[in-house]
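The following record pairs a protein chain with its ligand, magnesium ion.
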Amino acid sequence: MTDYSLYLVTGRELLPHGQDYFNSLEQALQGGVTVVQIREKNTDTGEFLDVALRSKAICDRYHVPLIVNDRVDIALAVQAAGVHLGQTDMPVSIARKLLPQGTIIGVSCNSLQELEQAVIDNADYVGIGSVWSTTTKNLTKPVIGVRGVGELLQSLDGTSIKAVAIGGIKSSNLLRTLHGSVSKTNHALDGVAVVSELMATTRPREVASHLRDILSAFRSSGSISNAMSVRSEYSAESVIDGVVQIGSCVKERNPLIHQITNNVSIAQSANVTIALGASPIMATTAQEMEDLSRINGALLVNIGTLVSTAYEGMVLAGTCANARQRPVVFDPVGVGASRFRQNAVNNLLNTWQAGVIKGNAGELAALAGSNEVRSKGVDSVGSGFKDPVSFVRNVARRERCVVVMTGKTDYISDGHHVAVLSNGHELLGQITGSGCIAGSCIASYCAVATISEQGEDTKGKLALGDLFLGAIGGILALTISAELASMREDVKGPGTFFPALIDELSTLSTRNIRERAQIQIV
Ligand code: 3NM
Ligand code: MG
C-alpha cells in the first residue's frame, strides 16, 4: 500500500542558489517524505532520463515510491512505481495498456467532472488542486479552497481511489488544509503534495519533518478544532455538569481572550469577558498576532465593522491560533449583507480552521448558501428554518466545527448532537452587540474547555477539545444572566439592563445555572 501522506513533487527550478537537487531530495526523504513525483517541465528527454534514474536510486534506498510526471516513456525506462497525468496528457486507459501491471496512475483534477472521469478510468489516486493560490504552477483553473476539496472528495466514496491535495500547501496552512478538506460523508484526504516549501529551502529535512509533525498531530489529536471526533455521548445532565465545571475553571484560570471585534461593541465585549473571570485583549494589528498567540487562551474573530487592516490581523491571528491549537471562535456578523463580507468570510474560512462558528439564522443561512432565511443588515428576518436542528447539524458537519445559531431558541451542534437551549430574555434583543458579547462568552468558556492540551494540570478533567460544551456554556452564562438581570427591580429597560447584566454575569453561580438551564440534547 502506497503511503500518500507527504507527497513531494520536485521542481529543480525552485532550488535556492547553490543547493544540489539530489541532496535536497535525499534530505526530504530523511525528513519523512513518503512518495516522490519528479516533475520536469522544461527538460530534454536525455536529461530527464538521467535525473529520473538518479532520483529513483535515491528513493529506492529509502523505500519510497517514485512517480514520473507526464512521461510514460520515462516511467517505463526507469521502472518507476507510477506516472502522474494531467488533464491534457495521455489518457489513463492508454497509459494503463503501456505500463506494467500494478503501476500507479495518478490524475490531476480540478472539478467534479474531472474527478468523475478519474473514477470511471479507475485511476489509483487523484491530485486535487489547486487548493490555495500558488506561483509554482501557472494556474489556468480556479483555486478550489479547502471546502471545495471537501465537496469533491465525496465522489470518491465507495471507490479505493486515494486523494492528495496540491497547490500552495505549506506548514502554515497544513492544519486547516487537513481539517477543512473533508466531505459531508467524512471522506478525508490521504495526503498532501508540496512543491515549493520543500524545494525552495536550504533545509528540506527540517521542513519535511515539520510537515510530518503537523500530519501526526492532526491524526493523533483529533484536535481541538475537530468537533467530529470529540466525545460521543452527552445528556442534558452531563452537559450541565460540564458547563458548571468550565464556568468555575474560567474564574480560577483567568484565561486571556484575544478578540478582534467591531468598534460598536468592543467595550461591551471586554466588560463581559472580565465579568466572567477571563481577561480580554482587543488587539487588531497583524504584527503582534504571533506574540499574542503564545499567551492566548482563545481567539474571537468578529467581522462586525470589517476594515482591511483588521482583516490582515484576522488572517494571521487565526493561522497562529491553529498552529498553537488554541480555539478560534468566529462570528461572521452580517455576512449576508454584502458581497465584501461574503468574500471575507469565505477567505477566512478557507485560511484557518474555526473551532466554533456563531451566528443568527440569517448569517448562518448566508454562510451555508441557503436562501431559506434572509437577512437585513446584521439581523435576520422571517420566522427561521423549518428544521433548525438539521440545519445547524449540517453546517457543523460541513465546516468541521461547532456551530451556534442564536435566536429566541439557541441551537448548538458539534455535527452529531444538537443542544436546544431556551433560556434568555427579550431585553437582550434591545441592546446593541448582544450577539457579539455571546461570542465573547463562548470564547471565554472555550479557552478553558481545551486547556488540558497545554499540559497544565487537568484538575477540571475537561475533555480535550470539548468546544461543544464550551459553546453551550458561553450561551447559558449569557442567557441565564440576562434572565436574572431582567428580574431586578432596578432594571427599567435596555439602558439599565446592560449594567445589570454585567453584574449578574460576574456573580452567576453554579446554582443559578443548575436551576435555570433549559436544555435538551437531540
Ligand atoms: N499542480 P506548491 S498546483 C504541480 O493544481 C501543481 O494541479 C497543481 O506547488 C494543480 O506546493 C501545483 O509550491 C504546484 O504551491 C504546487
Ligand atoms: Mg502534465
